[in-house]
């Protein structure tokens, strides 16, 4: 039985610090067969659309945020886990080069501000997949920001929309919601597509763009997928507001 841990939307340095530390400790203890980060590992706040002309545009630089992610997530993760790790491309990961293309095209360099280079992924033995990752037969992991994926107000709904578009079951992030939705078609429901949204791991109080009330239909969570010759069984692991969670009867806090 292969065990894959999926995490998404840390959006460092806006991450939930306790949740980040607990998940790293969990991965060290659990030693899964693979870790897949579905994207938005770094927020890159300064080049965001909502930062334009505001104080946030002149805050922590892209290089400083990338260094923060390496120091507080990638290096601690690798200190106790040397198994396969994959990072997927995402809308936040694309922010630095999009910012240059839109606002300083004369300075744009396609390679320098690619996320895999900003995070020095090769140095840590981490694979980068810019679009999607087929991690099991009939299953794809993708961040969820690609054109053509219809969003939904219900957790899992956007992932199911992506699954129907791709005709493969999908695990995704991006929406910051956590849920699993399936749809069966054909005689006796012979074909089933499943959409899994795995929530987020950021500190909502740091999300200035939500307004003073910080109102959002978001859920903190991550996922574990069990994979064998008969298929994939995904499980959502809810994370509390204090950053703790339970996996297979053990609480990490």
Automatic annotation (TrEMBL):
InterPro entries: Metallo-depent_PP-like
Classification via SUPFAM superfamilies: Metallo-dependent phosphatases
Protein known as: Metallophosphoesterase
Biological source species: Streptomyces chrestomyceticus
Higher taxonomy: Bacteria, Bacillati, Actinomycetota, Actinomycetes, Kitasatosporales
